[in-house]
Design brief:
alpha/beta, seven-stranded mixed beta sheet, globular, disordered N terminus, binds zinc ion
């Protein structure tokens, strides 16, 4: 341990088990709560994760001050950036492109309907825009829509989706322009000059859990929204029924990418600290919740974690014997049809009890 404290993070030598020839991952122990600054916390879960053949133990710590759950140690920015390649945003091997496109478009239209109940139209900034589907969809429906993402792979994919889908992306890499008016920028909102009060809507779809220090983002978002403008954020819910049922195997944990784990109360606290007023919390997510619970349940019987998503992407990593592969597929075929309706029932029950596995929070700048 060679530590120095910088902004609440203590830089330490990596404790990972090193494999010959593999580069080590620099990590930081998170000393204080990213939301309230309290240094008192307790162990919530402990998980081992292998990244590029380097094993690391991660702890999920629960803040005694506000209840936020956060991951410690945290990978360095450079190592985290490597986790967001094109494969992360979308499978390249999905065999049903037409069906996938229809489902993706349906998801965007449902999102648009939910946000337009609060803001009918205007200027949108989608933070962590990923593959760009939501930005293209909103631009197609009359919004002045901008997406921002720090990942170059995501931006390339977003511009490509503009050429394939709703618009005519020029793909010229200058951050501007698509035939449908969608615009994409690289970096964080601090890297670009957004005028105070210039936006009507900010969306963060499954993004906040990836941001280790969320307070500056909440404050900047508050500044660049107009009065009456809305921030809409969806996150996995660490206090939801699915998280409680699946424990440390829950898909929503996604260690080490997810750095903080919100509940309705901790997300409310973070937003209210920045001056927002929470108007509504949605506990129903057909898109994520049943699949996440099914995925987590099957991980109890598969010989390796994440076999379902790897198999769906046709990207099962090597060193899997034919027998092991056959066992996992047989398990999926036998147990999948039994577990799927049970997971749908459990997650629907969780939503009705306001313990959804994934939540959407709608907050207004008054
Ligand atoms: Zn806290």
């Amino acid at each position: 341990m060679n530590g120095s404290t910088e902004g609440g993070l203590k830089t330490v030598a990596n404790s990972a088990e090193l494999v010959a020839g593999m580069s080590r991952h620099e990590t930081h122990a998170v000393e204080s709560c990213p939301l309230c600054g309290d240094s008192r916390n307790s162990l919530f879960h402990q998980l081992r994760h292998t990244l590029n053949k380097v094993e690391q133990t991660y702890e999920l710590r629960k803040c005694r001050g506000c209840g936020l759950v956060f991951v410690s140690p945290r990978l360095s920015e450079a190592a985290l950036t490597q986790l967001y390649d094109q494969e992360y945003y979308f499978s390249t091997g999905w065999p049903y492109d037409g069906l996938a496109a229809r489902i993706i478009e349906y998801i965007q239209s449902q999102r648009r309907r939910r946000v337009e109940r609060f803001v009918p139209t205007g200027r949108l900034l989608d933070i962590g825009s990923g593959s760009g589907h939501f930005v293209h969809h909103m631009a197609h429906h009359g919004w002045e829509a901008t997406g921002i993402d720090f990942s170059a792979a995501a931006l390339a994919l977003a511009r490509l989706n503009g050429t394939n889908g709703n618009g005519n992306g020029n793909g010229n890499g200058n951050g501007n322009g698509n035939g449908n008016g969608a615009r994409f920028l690289q970096g964080s909102i601090e890297d670009h000059q957004f005028a105070p009060g210039s936006l009507d809507l900010i969306t963060l779809w499954q993004v906040l859990e990836h941001i280790g220090e969320p307070r500056p983002l909440f404050q900047t978002s508050h500044q660049i929204l107009r009065r009456g403008g809305m921030l809409v954020a969806s996150v996995p819910n660490i206090e939801g029924l699915s998280s409680r049922l699946a424990g440390e195997r829950w898909w929503g944990l996604d260690v080490p990418r997810h750095l903080v784990h919100y509940s309705p109360s901790t997300l409310r606290r973070g937003l209210e600290q920045a001056g927002f007023r929470v108007m509504h919390v949605n506990h129903f997510s057909l898109q994520y919740d049943p699949y996440a619970l099914l995925h987590s349940s099957l991980d109890w019987v598969f010989t390796r974690r994440h076999f379902l998503s790897d198999f769906a992407k046709r990207n099962v990593p090597g060193k899997l014997s034919g027998l092991e592969f056959a066992y996992n597929v047989a398990t999926l075929v036998v147990l999948g049809p039994v577990l799927a309706p049970l997971c749908l029932l459990a997650t629907t029950t969780g939503s009705c009890l306001r313990q959804g596995g994934f939540i959407e929070v709608f907050a207004r700048r008054d």
